[in-house]
Design a protein that fits this description.
A two-stranded antiparallel sheet has the order 1-2. The radius of gyration is 24 Å and the shape is elongated. It contains two helices and two strands. The chain is mainly alpha-helical.
Amino acid sequence: MIALFIGWLSYFAYALFRFRRSRNPKADYFGVKGHASNYIEGAVAIIEGVLLIGVAVPLWAKAVDKFPKESDSTVIQVVGQQFQWNAR
């Protein structure tokens, strides 16, 4: 997640620098003529999905599979009623 954060933050800084107002004073109403940005966006989404499914989900499953010892845990009683939860 840190790598993704740093990657997106660096891209954001690049976009702010590349498309600043002083360099592009007039708006371009024709838009992008190539499809490279679509392909890059799709590749980034696939890479993030692979990282999420391949790395984060197994690590999370391993972390939540272990219950704490009974001496370290707090025991509570929860009663669910129609419009409220009562915890003791």
